[in-house]
Design a protein that fits this description.
- The protein is about 80% helix and about 0% strand.
- It is an all-alpha fold.
- The N and C termini lie far apart (about 115 Å).
Length: about 140
């Protein structure tokens, strides 16, 4: 085999060159050493990745627990779970606020779609207006 300059070779080329130039006894030693080194590295990597996974799992559980505690402390309720009195008050507020906005000549859609409370209250308001119009139309039709 011809001599090569080891400094000009990449790491893999050096390993291959050194492996080719050694005796059988040294090759067996290198194989065993490589096998042991690879197994140790795999164990180390697996233990690190398990540790990272467990830590991430703990972080997610803690985050979920904080959100649940926050939900329970604030007693967050969905709009349709509120008592009927609060729903009527919200609908009345939306009705008067939309009249004020219409007096100014602006569009009240932003008010209706601003949050869940307003969406629910405005939908209840529209349903009530529709029912009232339907009743009036029925009364006007039948003499």
């Amino acid at each position: 085999m011809e001599e090569k300059d080891l400094n000009s070779m990449s790491f893999d080329e050096k390993q291959d060159y050194l492996y080719d130039t050694v005796s059988d006894r040294e090759r067996n030693f290198l194989r065993k050493k490589k096998k042991v080194w690879t197994n140790d590295m795999n164990k180390l990597y697996e233990s690190e990745s398990d540790y990272k996974y467990n830590m991430e799992l703990k972080r997610q559980k803690n985050r979920l627990k904080k959100l649940e505690d926050q939900y329970n402390l604030k007693k967050i309720t969905r709009p349709h779970e509120k008592p009927i009195e609060e729903i009527i008050i919200e609908s009345r507020r939306i009705f008067f606020d939309s009249i004020e906005i219409l007096k100014k000549g602006k569009n009240p859609i932003k008010l209706y779609l601003s949050n869940d409370k307003n969406k629910f209250a405005s939908s209840i308001l529209f349903i009530m207006i529709g029912v009232i119009l339907l009743l009036f139309a029925t009364l006007m039709k039948n003499p």
